[in-house]
Amino acid sequence: MSAGTLITLLSNSQLVEASVSVQPIERIYKLILPKSVAGSVIEHIRREYPIEACGALFGYVTGGLCSITKTVPLRNILASSTSFWFDVREWMQVIIDAGKAGMEYIGLYHSHARDEPLPSLSDRHRMMECPGECWLIVAYKPGYPTKFAAYRVDDYGSSITSIPIVSDF
Ligand SMILES: [Zn+2]
């Protein structure tokens, strides 16, 4: 999702409020995911399983270190167990609301109802449209360990890089 998409879909009155959230995100080298935040993501995923759960990540970035402080669930409009996407207007609204609360949009999270948090082909395609964003993928399957992985797209969509995750869980 590019900044341009966000701007064209908003009315003029919303442009000023949204301008905060469309500033380029500083490049993220490490992700800090507190146990409480990871817990709310897992809770959302369990609720939706086996449908892929998705949502937005918020927090702040300092010196390449990104702290996730809040996540907001989004409805998977594909209602699929192998892919996800969301209503763009719903996505914009959560970014506007979080921006009002002083939070920076970091990217997206979604679940895989399988045992590995590796980006699928459609994930890779979508990620290329979101340069600078962080994508958190959570593999959740009952009976298997829950696994987290994070990625970012560099250089205007030419490469996908894994981001190390630091957590207290
Ligand atoms: Zn995926």
Describe this structure in words.
- The protein is of the alpha/beta class and 169 residues long.
- It has a single domain, classed as Cytidine Deaminase, domain 2 (3-Layer(aba) Sandwich).
- The chain has helices at residues 3-9, 12-18, 35-48, 88-100, 121-128; strands at residues 30-33, 54-62, 65-74, 104-112, 134-139, 147-154, 159-163, 165-167.
- It has an 8-stranded mixed sheet with strand order 7-6-5-4-2-3-1-8.
- The chain is globular and about 40 Å long.
- It binds zinc ion.
- Zinc ion binds at residues 110, 112, 120, 123, 137.
- Zinc ion (ZN) binds at residues 110, 112, 120, 123, 137.
Topology diagram in text:
Layout: H1 3-9, H2 12-18, E1 30-33, H3 35-48, E2 54-62, E3 65-74, H4 88-100, E4 104-112, H5 121-128, E5 134-139, E6 147-154, E7 159-163, E8 165-167
Parallel strand pairs: 1-3, 1-8, 4-5
Antiparallel strand pairs: 2-3, 2-4, 5-6, 6-7
Bound molecules: zinc ion.
Zinc ion binds at residues 110, 112, 120, 123, 137.
